[in-house]
Design brief:
203 residues; alpha+beta; two-stranded antiparallel sheet; 6 helices; 5 strands; 37% helix; disordered C terminus
């Protein structure tokens, strides 16, 4: 317990764990995205597939513990956004409502910075960061004009607007929405032909 650090293996399935904590035993976790989960009605029981995957990984990475008895299983659900990034933005048409969510499993360690961003938006009327704005999802909903309009509002300068637009184009490309991605990228290249990120994505 005192010699083993917290560990994580990002190859294939994302497996992680911690040494024995307060006498509760060695923890191994499978952080692979699963099926949609309703925290109100779904059962918090680890299924056999996940249990076998954990056992197989334990035998691979920690062979000395391959036959160790199972002490506890637990489903630890959390919300995920489509791109695994936070949502920190004002509600469209209700700018007195601020959304701060979409933690996607890694918000806790960013808590202080998220707090600063939210405080800046509430107290100093700062704009949301384009990476965390709701506008990035508009393309998935075929709301191209809304996306461009929101990004224009967010932009404090040309570089901010262009970079934010390229990020959305890249996300759409990864999601297989190549036509939307190309239209969006074309907008940036037409308006800001010197944007290096756009040319990199184009290549």
């Amino acid at each position: 317990e005192d010699l083993l650090p917290v560990w994580a293996d990002h190859r294939g399935r994302f497996m992680y764990g911690i040494p024995a904590n307060q006498g509760r035993g060695f923890k191994i976790g499978d952080d692979t995205r699963g099926a949609p989960f309703d925290p109100t009605s779904d059962e918090r029981i680890v299924n056999e597939e996940r249990l076998h995957a954990a056992r197989d990984y334990l035998a691979f990475r920690f062979p000395g513990m391959s036959g160790a008895p199972l002490v506890e299983t637990r489903v630890c659900q959390y919300e995920n956004t489509a791109d695994h990034d936070f949502i920190i933005d004002r509600l469209p048409k209700r700018h007195n409502v601020l959304i701060a969510g979409g933690g996607s499993g890694h918000a806790f360690k960013h808590g202080p910075v998220i707090g600063e961003m939210v405080a800046g938006m509430l107290l100093d009327d700062q704009d949301p960061h384009p990476r965390f704005a709701l506008a990035r999802f508009y393309y998935a909903l075929n709301r191209r004009d809304d996306a461009l309009r929101e990004l224009t509002v967010l932009a404090n300068n040309k570089a901010t607007y262009a970079d934010a637009t390229v990020e959305i184009a890249a996300a759409r490309y990864v999601d297989g929405q190549t036509t939307d991605a190309w239209h969006l990228l074309s907008d940036v290249l037409r308006q800001y032909p010197a944007n290096a990120k756009a040319h990199l994505l184009e290549a």
